[in-house]
Amino acid sequence: MSRRDSVMLSTGAICTAVSMYQLIALELAHFYAMFSLGVSIVLSVMLRAFARRGVFVGWSVRRIAVFFALLLASSVVIDRIGMHIGYWEYPHYGTDDQVRKYVFEWTLALFYHFVGMVLGVEILVRIGVERRTAFLLSLLIFVTLIGLITESLNLQVYSWRVN
Which of 1, 23, 28, 91 is the most buried (most CB within 10 A)? Predict the structure, then answer.
């Protein structure tokens, strides 16, 4: 592992540890912003180490920017629809929390689910599963596991509450 990857992994681990402290000791509903950042970094480094390539290898800066803009737009649309139909609410959030919610808690969460899916595909392909099948299995297994972990942590402080 390169020095850069070691520093990134340490940074991600520290962010995740701080978020766990915020969650467990302080019971802060805003733990999820730091958690999303930490997990995004850790999974990105794990993918780089396992697949020997980064998440965005071969992507132009413009394509990466469009990707994150689409994640952000999807986050806002999904969240607004969910709140409008009364499916979920944010009991601890005010209007000043919107940037944190959409950039760190939604967009980065979608990103780390994406990286987890790609990592899952790489793991499954390495053990001999055909790539298309690996993609579907990764969606079912890795993304579901990441989602269950995320939701189980949220239940401790109700950053968001499903009605």
Answer: 23
Q: Fill in the DSSP letter of residue 97.
A: G
Could you tell me which of 92, 76, 94 has the C-alpha nearest to residue 84? Answer: 76
91-41-66 Cα angle (round to 5): 80
Average pLDDT, the chain: 92
- pLDDT tens, residue by residue, 63-120: 999 999 999 999 999 999 998 999 888 887 777 788 888 887 889 999 999 999 999 9
The alpha carbon of 119 is separated from its chain's Cα centroid by a whole number of angstroms, namely 13
Q: Which position has the token pair 């000043």?
A: 96
In the chain, alpha helices (H): 3-24, 31-51, 61-84, 98-99, 108-126, 131-138, 144-154
Contact 41, 112 (CB under 8 A): no
8 A C-beta contact, residue 23 and residue 159: no
